[in-house]
Design goal:
The chain contains one helix and nine strands. It is of the alpha+beta class and 220 residues long. It is elongated.
């Protein structure tokens, strides 16, 4: 077609190759942005979970330390309160008197909770084994108690004046970009959780907390 001046219409435009290159570059940029977003989002999620598991572990640890430290408290001076002989490396049973001169028995153990996960559980009653077990925190993979004398040597629970405590808590969700291969040990160097123990749950992140508890009212 000719214009009135005799000039032709311009045929300038994008070729098919140019369009394909533009589409490809747009796709590459979009994928890069998406991957960056997913990476940042996953990082935030992991950090939130780690903060949560650290807080849960600390709350549980602080509660156990506070109560175990009071084992043997006896204002009546009867000498009957303390760490019970039925205590094991997996469960502690101890007693103390309250200010009304009534003895209370408290136990901690690792048990299966209502959600199917392992929970740190607590029991309180007027005798050994009395009272309902209550969940303190969920997602606990290991709980370990050691009973020691003044010099740090291992003794029977009822002869202990101190308790070595270790707990391993994991996140509630798996991180498929992470694989846990750690062997967790208590303060004596004994393994309390090995990779073989969590072979089907290796993508969880875990935290180990340790404490040495001096029972104020024992060995006096």
């Amino acid at each position: 077609m000719l214009l009135s001046s005799g000039r032709k219409w311009s045929q300038a435009g994008y070729t098919l190759v140019e369009l394909m290159v533009a589409v490809a570059l747009t796709g590459i940029v979009t994928v890069a942005i998406y991957k960056s977003y997913i990476s940042v989002s996953t990082g935030y999620d992991v950090q939130d979970q780690l903060v949560e598991v650290q807080q849960n572990a600390r709350v549980a640890m602080d509660r156990m330390v506070r109560e175990i430290r009071m084992a043997g408290y006896d204002p009546t001076d009867t000498g009957t309160a303390g760490i019970d002989a039925s205590s094991t490396s997996q469960q502690i049973v101890f007693s103390m008197y309250d200010d009304a001169s009534a003895m209370t028995f408290i136990s901690y153990r690792l048990g299966v909770g209502s959600s199917g996960s392992k929970d740190l559980q607590r029991q309180e009653g007027a005798s050994v084994g009395a009272g309902a077990w209550q969940s303190v925190i969920q997602n606990v993979d290991a709980l370990d108690f050691g009973y020691v004398a003044v010099d740090g040597s291992t003794v029977a629970p009822e002869a202990a004046v101190g308790v070595e405590l270790a707990i391993v808590v994991r996140t509630s969700n798996e991180d498929y970009g992470y694989t846990d291969t750690r062997t967790y040990v208590n303060q004596a160097g004994t393994t309390i959780l090995a990779p073989a123990d969590y072979a089907t749950a290796k993508n969880f992140r875990r935290r180990l907390l340790n404490a040495i508890i001096a029972c104020r009212n024992l060995g006096m």
